[in-house]
Amino acid sequence: MKIIENGNLTLVRGIKASGIHCGIKSGSKKDLALIYSESLATAAGVFTNNLVSAAPIHICKENLLDHQARSIIINSGIANAATGEKGIDDARQMAYLTASALQIHTNSVLVSSTGKIGEYLPMEKIASGIQKAASSLSIDGGQNAAEAIMTTDTFPKQIAVRIKMAGTDVNLAGIAKGAGMIRPNMATMLAFLVTDAAVEANLLQDCLRNAVNQTFHRITVDGDTSTNDMVILMANGLSGIEAISSESKDANKFIDAVEFICQKLALMIVNDGEGATKLICIHVKGALSEKDAEKIAFRIAESPLVKTSLFGEGCNWGRVMAAAGSAGIFVDPKKIDIFYGSVQVVQKGTGFALKTEKVLKTYLKSRNINIDVDLHMGRKSAKVWTTDLTPDYVHINADYKT
Q1: DSSP state, 299?
Q2: Residues acting as catalytic residues
Q3: N or C: which end of the chain has fewer CB within 10 A?
Q4: Could you read off the pLDDT of 210-238 as tens digits, one per residue?
């Protein structure tokens, strides 16, 4: 697998994209993105588990019943969530207007929105914006699309890879947005992946769900689950390879590539956490089950005391111990070892003098921090990625309406 430098969605055969300003956001910030496949694609999706799900979620689920799609229209700035039947009608209208502009079937259009909850979409602006976005579609439009889906993000998130399958170069690319209100199942994040591989629908859905479980479902910034979140994967088959099934020789190559793309995008989201100065990996191992390890890792990752201590660059390992013991999972405190990076701070449940204190202080000034917690109870493990909690996070979210 080869990472394509500066690669984006339009590296994939048959994919065009655009990102334009239609007037949802102030100034000239891009706020409407369009992704288009020249041929009908097999499609899969994973969506938020929040019961207060936004209107576009419902439209996407409807239009994915046949596991096919050809285009995705995305607006940023307004979430179209908690907007009742009008919100549903507006999301459906977005699909219709996009289909009309592209001369394709309405049910082959997926719809996505992100931004403030509780406001109605300015449909006149969006209608004219869809026409503009359709006429702006280009094989050079991937960067613009990545920028147009941003809200509080500080940089566009995109990656592309190339893999060899059946003697043919197959391309896979993705973009994402997200910086705050990040918690699995899903989080305030959108991700859109495209490939020119041909993939059977069942494998595509299983592959995406498994990848999401290991990546986007393992990140947390603040423990909040949002209303709009989705990950979509379209496979248009224009590489010319035979459709991949679970029995195919190259199936694992494709599965690994999808997880790799999702992992890279997920880490970009955490690294861009609102106000964050640290990217923190919590690795819990020696658990009786992966579920136990994951639950303890999330309890540590979402502890405000742990997160603020890391912002302060202090080794307050007692907060990690306390969080591990309050996750609702049985642990034996006398067996726990904790490491900050390569420096052990707890051995068999007891902290001990740090002869390498200077090394640890230097380590905690790093952008990337690893905390390993070994329970010594079993053989299962889980990793969760999070950020520190900073004054800037409070300021950003105090000023952000809904």
Answers
A1: H
A2: 188
A3: C
A4: 999 999 888 876 555 556 789 999 999 99
